[in-house]
């Protein structure tokens, strides 16, 4: 890298718009969406989609609720042409969906584009040519007027081809490609010239699509450009202002959002942000960002995993696990303080009277996207007691008292450090069992027992195995637990002083079990926990005493 990058790269000029209004606006309704997955997305793939994949993706886009779908570049070749004409011929386009195709401003390509749409009920033909100084000089070697003529010549060809096919309801889109790096007044001049040819009206508007073909500035600059354009384009009421951002600086979504605030009506992009280089605007993210502000995006993203599966199958591109909303890990917390807050959030939600979503660290309810709460908390060496307790509660129905959570989390931490890997629910359950529940290496294990007596004076008589040898023991107490503790001293267990006791049911009905948690102090000042789980609540208590005795 250069020590002084200014010798090679220049700062992007700002727009002179001191009375800009977009910064104080908010997004209050969904824009018109145009999916270009099958065109801009497709042209950026290592292996462009075949007809089967294009068909699958088309069906997904329809299911999601996209009403305008750019289905390809018909003049690119037979695969494209046949797919598009096949959609039309085979009646695969729902009545409320309009397909769109892209073409350069060349007669043969425009004729091919119209031919691919033969018989369509309605269609949008999208014409483009680059207008910025660099493209004028480098790509076309043309003056401003010559570049404007590419656009107007193309517009005339669209008009004439459409006139030959009155059976189709034609709409037109014009993109001054490289808009965001062109002079604003020149973009307006070219668009106005195209409008002069196509003569749009408020009832039959022209879509003027303003691409950040290569993202070159902060998104506020793009918003200024859009607001400036909206103010200066003639007959604004006869124009649908459309945005087409790319993500070269990582702000394609932000630019689209600010562009909507700046007055645009329509947004082009791809599901999950596929597209040239770093991608197009990610429509899923823009839509769900709106959703989290309480605005209906008018897209159905309620099965995000199915969407991801289809998109990855069709594009053969992976989705990064941290991709907003759609990545595998975006609803998962590994770190202790996040887990603690999420767990508390869910507990608080149970007490809440309304539906308002306020779970720390989760900007959206995973369930709204068809995701379960299972993966919300996962455990590794960064995790804390709250997360571990959550997993035991979700997976096993155990509601550990707080100090037991802390006790157990030390064991989990030691295992996570020793293994240097994530611990799944099974690992955690096995560790819990080997730490607190009966096992073959226990000194004390319960064979059978009986209890008798009245309230306040209970007699426990039982048989326990002590280091492999069966012993009969008995003890009295004002309750069963104290009776067992008294009996266990006959078996050689250390004195246990109960500091805390709690119990709860696990599950419901005939299969329900009970869990008992016992915190005991020892004579030497240490604290040990005992846990008992049994179908019978009294037996769960007895097991908890033996568990504590074993751990003592
Ligand atoms: C920003 C975007 O994403 S634009 C969309 C880009 N998508 C694609 O290119 C995918 C499909 N493209 C293709 O299949 C082919 O490129 C085709 C069929 C369009 C054209 O192929 P070819 O005729 O072989 O030419 P090629 O792609 O090299 O085009 C370059 C020529 O088109 C000219 N050109 C570029 N854009 C335009 C335009 N919008 N209108 C008219 N001419 C144009 C160039 O100046 C160049 O002309 P030259 O040969 O006189 O120098
Ligand atoms: C053709 C236009 C809309 C385009 O894809 C771009 O500029 O990125």
From TrEMBL:
Cofactor dependency: Mg(2+)
Name of this protein: 2-isopropylmalate synthase
Subcellular localization, as worded in the UniProt entry: Cytoplasm
Pathway: Amino-acid biosynthesis; L-leucine biosynthesis; L-leucine from 3-methyl-2-oxobutanoate: step 1/4
Family label: Belongs to the alpha-IPM synthase/homocitrate synthase family. LeuA type 2 subfamily.
GO biological process, one term: L-leucine biosynthetic process
Assigned EC number: 2.3.3.13
Keyword Transmembrane: no
Ligase in keyword set: no
Gene Ontology MF terms: 2-isopropylmalate synthase activity; acetyl-CoA C-acetyltransferase activity; magnesium ion binding
Function as written in the Swiss-Prot or TrEMBL entry: Catalyzes the condensation of the acetyl group of acetyl-CoA with 3-methyl-2-oxobutanoate (2-ketoisovalerate) to form 3-carboxy-3-hydroxy-4-methylpentanoate (2-isopropylmalate).
């Amino acid at each position: 890298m250069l020590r002084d990058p200014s010798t090679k790269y220049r700062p992007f000029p700002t727009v002179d718009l001191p009375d800009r209004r977009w910064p104080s606006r908010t997004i209050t309704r969904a824009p018109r969406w145009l999916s270009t997955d099958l065109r801009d997305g497709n042209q950026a793939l290592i292996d462009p989609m075949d007809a089967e994949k294009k068909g699958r993706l088309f069906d997904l886009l329809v299911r999601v609720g996209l009403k305008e779908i750019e289905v390809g570049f018909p003049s690119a070749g037979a695969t494209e042409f046949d797919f598009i004409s096949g959609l039309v011929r085979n009646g695969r386009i729902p009545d409320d969906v309009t397909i769109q195709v892209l073409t350069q401003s060349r007669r043969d390509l425009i004729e091919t584009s119209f031919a691919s749409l033969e018989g369509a009920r309605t269609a949008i033909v999208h014409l483009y040519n680059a207008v910025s100084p660099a493209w004028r000089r480098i790509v076309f070697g043309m003056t401003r007027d010559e570049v404007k003529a590419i656009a107007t010549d193309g517009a005339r060809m669209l008009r004439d081809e459409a006139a030959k096919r009155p059976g189709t309801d034609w709409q037109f889109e014009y993109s001054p490609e490289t808009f965001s790096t062109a002079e604003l007044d020149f973009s307006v001049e070219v668009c106005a010239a195209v409008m002069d040819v196509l003569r749009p009206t408020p009832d039959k508007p022209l879509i003027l699509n303003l691409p950040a073909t290569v993202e070159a500035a902060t998104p506020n600059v793009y918003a200024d450009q859009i607001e400036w354009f909206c103010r200066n384009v003639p007959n604004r009421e006869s124009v649908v202002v459309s945005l087409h951002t790319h993500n070269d600086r990582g702000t394609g979504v932000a630019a689209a959002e600010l562009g909507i605030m700046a007055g645009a009506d329509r947004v082009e992009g791809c599901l999950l942000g596929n597209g040239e280089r770093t991608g197009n605007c990610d429509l899923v993210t823009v839509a769900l960002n709106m959703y989290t502000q309480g605005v209906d995006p008018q897209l159905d993203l309620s099965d995000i995993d199915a969407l991801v599966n289809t998109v990855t199958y069709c594009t053969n591109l992976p989705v990064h696990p941290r991709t907003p909303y759609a990545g595998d890990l975006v609803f998962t917390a590994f770190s202790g303080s996040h887990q603690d807050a999420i767990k508390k959030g869910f507990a608080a939600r149970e007490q809440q009277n309304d539906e308002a979503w306020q779970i720390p660290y989760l900007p959206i309810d995973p369930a709204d996207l068809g995701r379960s709460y299972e993966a919300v908390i996962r455990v590794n060496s960064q995790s804390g007691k709250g997360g571990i307790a959550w997993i035991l509660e979700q997976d096993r129905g155990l509601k550990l008292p707080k100090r037991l959570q802390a006790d157990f989390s030390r064991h989990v931490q030691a295992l996570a450090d020793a293994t240097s890997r994530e611990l799944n629910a099974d690992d955690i359950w096995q560790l819990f069992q080997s730490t607190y529940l009966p096992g073959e290496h226990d000194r004390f294990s319960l064979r059978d027992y009986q209890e008798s007596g009245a309230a306040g004076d209970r007699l426990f008589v039982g048989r326990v195995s002590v280091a492999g040898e069966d012993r009969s023991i008995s003890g009295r107490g004002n309750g069963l637990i104290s009776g067992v503790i008294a009996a266990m001293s006959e078996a050689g267990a250390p004195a246990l002083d109960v500091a805390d006791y709690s119990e709860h049911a696990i599950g419901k009905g005939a299969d329900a079990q009970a869990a008992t948690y016992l915190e005991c102090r020892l004579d030497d000042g240490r604290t040990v926990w005992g846990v008992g789980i049994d179908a019978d609540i009294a037996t769960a208590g007895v097991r908890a005493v033996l568990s504590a005795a074993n751990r003592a």
